[in-house]
């Protein structure tokens, strides 16, 4: 998951579909509600989503965008869609700059010499810097540092992320990652360190993309594991501390990966689609289980279970495994650009990219004429312990570029209380996934997608007037 | 903590002190019981043990026996004893072979290529091996493998350690580490992998010493992090898997470290001592907080708090920070060898080397004539939530060589439910210590040592007849 996208599009998108006042009210037929209830129970009893996630994270493992694992993940997804019997399977190219991590290390120097565990932020340049560390309690403190005041020094933002079910603690911590390096450069720093944007206490640092503002010369930038940030803070409380940071990483040309798409063909309006999906790429440190193997696995499984129904829904179910979400929503942007002409054929879209915890809330951008159908979906989700919270949330990261153009979206909010214990760390591995929670997710996505695809009427997807 | 020592000496030592049938019964004076109760409350309100542990783990950090950190730890301990006002501070040399870890990595090769997180076992030779992995569910299965059956292959023992308050799960898991490599060599293996002897689910492998039986040529031997053992097992379930293991590590000559000793002089029998302590060395991966910075910190604090009393106990309190426990009880053996002539001057000894969890049980080797005094100690410990469990347990690792010669010992059993989540991993860091639990430990050791040093009569320490 990317820091900035999660809640970015709500205000722009919520009412974007209200194009005609006299529009017919959208409704879901009773028969579809009955079928959805059966589908829900079938999905809860199935381990398909869990097994697909196991397959991706085991057989491919890490799949950093542009890496050899990325290419294997694309081949895996194509093969998996076909194996599952999706009616159409295809890929769409996604081109982006390629960033590589080769090695990284850090040591406290001098009388208290010891290693520190850190990881380069995505987008960091290579470089070895040695310097006295200057600690800042938060990003605002660093941003207030005078130009040149950190010359030859290493800036360290020691902001502690807060745990929250909805992941709201990631907002300020994500900014420490995305904006901290540029602030450090403006103050003259030679290197940038941050306490990991994480809620754990393990020696596994959290990576994630950063960026450097136009006109600045990038500096080596990395995140310390939480215990190492604690340790550095303790050492700094004793007196000046000098640290050596050695990063070998950087950008290396362009790479073309693929959005991989599988479709279950609808029975009456096959050219209209309900889109669900996750992102296929991961960070390199773990095996991308909660971020976002689970999202891919559970939406593939939901599509497959809908495909198994005797009576297909009216519209097609399109499952998208997006390329390179982590480094800038490249797959989502490519999808939005390519499919802009058929935006109106997208009934409703939902992306799963917040782990594998139970879904606890449902919301969507449904306009007034679709609110009754939206409530019907919520009613079918309620037995899964999912609350209807209209007017909250926003689209998942990879559908947000399309949502900005007018795509109708839904949000199936996962419990992310533990998500940032693992997010972007080596610890993001398959063993962390609870199969029962994942089955609940599959059930929710299957019910949601089936009902949206069965609705008579639309959910307001329509190109926005600029 | 070393695997083999924890419960090794009970049967030999329990009654070793019963040298004379007409011996006078040992008793603790009422005034000492009153003072001990005050000492207990003072210790519970103090953060001294926590602060000493913080100082060692922060300022020295990792202190692998024979490393530069080892030398700094010795200097730290000498300075800390002096700073705390111990009456006598000295060192005693401990010589041992030096083992170094330089680098380590592993990858699955072929269609499912991906890195695996592992760490060399202490004592492993350097080497790079590539081979097909053969999985064994436990040590017995590997030991049953026919000679030559693993030629050119890598043996992998996938035994899962069980969690237990008393750490009993470490017995069988420790054997996988100590005996597995030799069993693998006998079957012809080129390399040895084991699931970490740990109860966590984090990507931090557990190191620890291994050994190779006489006459065998050592092979590269390492422990996979628990999630990586899971991953390798899943890959092997899919078909053959080839792995590359590259370890750069090994023995490099002899090194002389020091047992560091501080003494609070007794008021009436200064030449008799109650010995408490922990071990000063740690593994290199973490900062040795629970293993065994806490043991050093809490026993130093207990000694200091006794030293603060207006009325000193009759005997001296000797706090020993033992050298190189991890690689074979070298400090404990050196202490036993050097002090064999004055074994009878050692009233009673207890070592803390099982983390920083609350103490829940007390036992000792007290012979019949000291059982009343032993019960008095237990009575003074009871308000700390400590149960008296006579006839159980054994001496801590570093006092076990001396206990085998006849030293009377006590055991203050810590809750180790979480100990093997962290033990011998990078995650053994100061942030894992609960200050309240550590203060309870300090209180227990202070009460214990003070009362044993105040007793009229002995606890049965006497050289054993061979």
UniProtKB/TrEMBL annotation, chains A, B:
Domain of life: Bacteria
Annotated compartments: Endoplasmic reticulum; Golgi apparatus; Lysosome; Secreted
Record's keyword annotation contains Protease: yes
Residue stretches making up the Peptidase M28 domain: 259-444
Keywords, ordered alphabetically: Carboxypeptidase, Endoplasmic reticulum, Glycoprotein, Golgi apparatus, Hydrolase, Lysosome, Metal-binding, Metalloprotease, Protease, Secreted, Signal, Zinc, Zymogen
Subunit note: Homodimer. The monomeric form is inactive while the homodimer is active.
Name listed for the protein in its UniProt record: Carboxypeptidase Q
The organism of origin for this protein: Lysobacter cavernae
């Amino acid at each position: 998951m990317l820091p900035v996208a999660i809640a970015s599009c709500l205000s722009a998108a919520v009412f974007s579909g209200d194009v005609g006042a006299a529009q017919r009210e959208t409704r879901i037929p009773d028969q579809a509600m009955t079928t959805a209830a059966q589908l829900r129970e079938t999905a809860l009893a199935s381990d398909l989503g869990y097994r697909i996630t196991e397959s991706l994270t085991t057989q491919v493992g890490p799949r950093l965008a542009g890496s050899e694992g990325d290419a294997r993940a694309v081949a895996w997804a194509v093969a998996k869609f076909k194996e599952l019997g999706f009616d159409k399977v295809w890929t769409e190219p996604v081109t982006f700059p390629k960033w590589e991590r080769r090695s990284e290390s850090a040591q406290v120097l001098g009388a208290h010499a010891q290693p520190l565990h850190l990881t380069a932020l995505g987008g960091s340049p290579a470089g070895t810097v040695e310097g006295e560390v200057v600690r800042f309690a938060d990003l605002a403190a660093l941003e207030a540092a005078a130009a040149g005041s950190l010359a030859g020094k290493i800036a360290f933002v020691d902001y502690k992320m807060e745990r929250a079910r909805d992941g709201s603690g990631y907002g300020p911590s994500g900014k420490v990652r995305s904006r901290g390096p540029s602030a450090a450069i403006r103050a003259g720093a030679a290197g940038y360190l941050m306490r990991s944007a994480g809620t754990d206490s393990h020696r596994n640092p959290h990576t994630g993309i950063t960026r450097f503002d136009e006109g600045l010369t990038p500096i080596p930038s990395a995140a310390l594991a939480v215990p190492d940030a604690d340790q550095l803070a303790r050492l700094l409380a004793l007196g000046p501390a000098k640290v050596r940071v050695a990063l070998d990483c950087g950008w290396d040309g362009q790479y073309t990966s693929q959005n991989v798409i599988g479709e279950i063909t609808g029975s009456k309006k096959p050219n209209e689609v309900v889109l669900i999906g996750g992102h296929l790429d991961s960070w390199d440190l773990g095996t991308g289980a909660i971020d976002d193997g689970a999202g891919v696995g559970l939406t593939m499984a939901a599509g497959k279970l809908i495909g198994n129904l005797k009576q297909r829904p009216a519209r097609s179910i399109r499952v998208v495994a997006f390329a390179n979400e982590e480094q800038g929503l490249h797959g989502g942007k490519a999808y939005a650009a390519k499919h802009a002409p058929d935006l109106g054929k997208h009934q409703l879209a939902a992306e799963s990219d917040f782990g594998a915890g139970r879904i606890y809330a449902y919301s969507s951008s449904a306009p007034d004429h679709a609110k009754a159908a939206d409530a019907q979906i919520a009613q079918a989700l309620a037995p899964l312990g999912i609350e209807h919270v209209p007017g909250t949330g926003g689209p998942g990261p990879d559908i947000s570029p399309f949502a900005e153009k007018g795509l109708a979206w839904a949000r199936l909010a996962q419990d992310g209380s533990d998500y940032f214990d693992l997010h972007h760390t080596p610890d993001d591995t398959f063993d962390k996934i609870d199969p029962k929670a994942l089955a609940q997710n599959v059930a929710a996505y299957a019910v949601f997608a089936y009902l949206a695809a069965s609705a008579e009427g639309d959910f307001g997807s329509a190109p926005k007037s600029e």
